[in-house]
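Supplementary Note 3. Input sequence used for the single-chain structure prediction.
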Amino acid sequence: MVDATTDAITLRPIGVVRSPYHATQGMPIQTVAAAEIAGELHVFDEFAEGLHDIEGFDYLIVLTHLHQATEKLRVVPFMDVTEHGVFATRAPARPNRIGLSIVRLDAVHGTVLRFFGNDMLDGTPVLDIKPYVPLLDVRTTERIGWFAQGLQRLPSTRSDDRMQP
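The predicted structure, written as discrete structure tokens, is reproduced below.
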């Protein structure tokens, strides 16, 4: 039996992001706000076989380790001025510091994936890549919590120091 409160989970990176962003401050906070910002995902050679057929997808879901984030359980998200529980946000300051980015695949060159929609820091460890499939991944809903008032801020919002310790 697994004791979820004490057993550690070990993950290993499958690659790393190369990005024009070398500091967390001033970065776009979501891929949709960075649609034209390019990045590269360098997959480590030992995982090269896992890229077979990836060029057949327009979009990818990239799961990352937010290696420069801190852990907080209550945050004031970038698109709001009110504190929320971190699980009701997409803030990077969270337990396990797992990031999710949906990016547009531009080209595949061996183990390098060129993409657009870059909201990631240079050197971000990549944990997994999954194909984005609209029929499986898109849900229509009207209930989006506090985001209903915050989304209008997205185009002009960039990260700042509020997620720092």
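DSSP finds two helices and eight strands in the chain. The radius of gyration is 16 Å.
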